[in-house]
Automatic annotation (TrEMBL):
It catalyses: UDP-alpha-D-glucose = UDP-alpha-D-galactose. Belongs to the NAD(P)-dependent epimerase/dehydratase family. It comes from the Bacteria. Keywords: Isomerase, NAD. This is UDP-glucose 4-epimerase. PANTHER family: UDP-GLUCOSE 4-EPIMERASE (PTHR43725). It comes from Dictyoglomus thermophilum. Residues 4-169 form the 3-beta hydroxysteroid dehydrogenase/isomerase domain. One of its GO terms (molecular function) is UDP-glucose 4-epimerase activity. Pfam families: 3Beta_HSD (PF01073). SUPFAM superfamilies: NAD(P)-binding Rossmann-fold domains (SSF51735). The keyword Zinc does not apply. GO terms for cellular component: cytosol.
Length: 337
């Protein structure tokens, strides 16, 4: 199959490309031409040869999309400005107008361009658990039949896009993703915005890529909204996820007072249907930590060596950590080489 992937060089995009090519599909990547994306494409081209091509373009320009759509069978639409750990370096909540243009107008353009084709194509769109809103007071897990209640620009954009897609004449499937962290993890101050006691389902980016690749070839997913998460064994509190990652890379867990206590829009989800259809739940958070360690390589030695300094720098980035001086005990906690 020929698959057009928008936002191909982001976190989920790169995982999807790998799995699509692995199952024998040809991938056309649609993304903005930045230095970083050009570098990623060069690396992927070396690995995948004729199975991959690129179409540099802007999702806000419908003519770019029309050209990219030629001869494709399925579209996987990932291009979006997300709230945290965004590949673009922009965060939807800081630049809501720019984000709206890319997220909603971009999706509108894509739908319009696809609808104008002689035979409209299939579309997989990645939405997010965020659309359920702040649900910590409700009994988990979230079900697909639960109402949406988007609390921020990003999830309002997702709900608007979901509705546009549902009301289109395309053959569509919507994947609402749980928290899926990139393997090349950057620890930025956004990590402090989630309360440690917040429920959060984890899903490995490679498993999302696998679910997308399986979905492209599936007969059964169309017309459905699927909740895509790691399943009950990946039902965590944010504290568990963060602790595993920070311990794994040698930084060590940071004190509770550095974190927000305003609830965050993540939760556990009922993924029974998606797992039955796609059989994608293959990895756990432990696999992720190993992947992050591998990606960091020798840098882990230096993180461990300079652990108190790294902890100091991180804590000073927290908008919630009000202490003028970070106690030595906090900085040196768990230090060993
Ligand atoms: O105008 C733009 C802005 C962004 N992008 C690309 O979109 C991708 C976004 O990637 P990233 O920021 O790493 O996001 P992901 O973690 O991959 O986000 C995926 O998963 C999210 C849910 O977790 C969804 O909201 C997103 O749509 C989906 O791309 C990148 O390649 C960007 O270059 C564009 O093509 N055009």
């Amino acid at each position: 199959m020929r698959v057009l992937v928008t936002g191909a060089f982001g976190n989920i995009g790169q995982s999807a490309i790998y799995e699509l090519i692995n199952q024998g599909d040809k991938v056309r990547c649609f993304d903005i031409k930045t230095k970083k994306n050009v570098k990623i494409f060069k690396r992927l081209k070396k690995l995948y040869g004729d199975s991959i091509e690129v179409f540099w373009g802007n999702i806000t320009n419908i003519e770019d999309i029309k050209k990219a759509l030629e001869d494709q069978d399925v579209v996987v639409h990932l291009a979006f400005i997300i709230p945290k750990l965004s590949a673009t370096g922009l965060e939807s909540e800081n630049v809501p107008d720019i984000a709206y243009k890319v997220n909603v107008i971009g999706t509108k353009n894509l739908i319009k361009a696809m609808e104008e084709l002689p035979s409209p194509k299939k579309l997989i769109f990645t939405s997010s658990v965020h659309v359920f809103g702040l649900t910590q007071h409700l009994e988990p897990p979230r079900k697909v039949s639960d109402p949406v209640n988007p609390p921020e620009h990003y999830s309002r954009h997702k709900v608007e896009c979901e509705n546009l897609i549902k009301n289109s004449n395309l053959t569509w499937c919507i994947y609402r993703l749980a928290a899926s962290l990139p393997v090349n993890l950057k620890l930025d101050k956004g990590m402090f915005d989630v309360p440690l006691s917040n429920r959060m389902e984890y899903v490995h980016t490679k498993d999302v890529g696998y679910a997308i690749a399986k979905g492209v070839r599936s007969e059964d997913i169309w017309g459905r909204i699927l909740l895509i998460g790691g399943g009950p064994r990946c039902w965590y509190y944010y504290r568990d996820i963060l602790e595993k990652v920070l311990e794994g890379i040698g930084v060590g867990m940071l004190p509770e007072e550095a974190f927000s206590n305003v609830p965050f829009a993540t939760d556990w989800m009922d993924t029974t249907e998606s797992e039955e259809l796609l059989h994608y739940q293959r990895r756990t958070i432990e696999d992720y930590v190993e992947d992050v360690k591998r990606a960091l390589g020798y840098k882990i030695f230096f993180i461990k060596l300079f652990r108190p300094t790294v902890r100091y720098i991180l804590l000073k980035r927290s908008p919630y950590y009000n202490r003028k001086y970070v106690p030595l005990k906090v900085l040196w906690e768990g230090y060993r080489l």
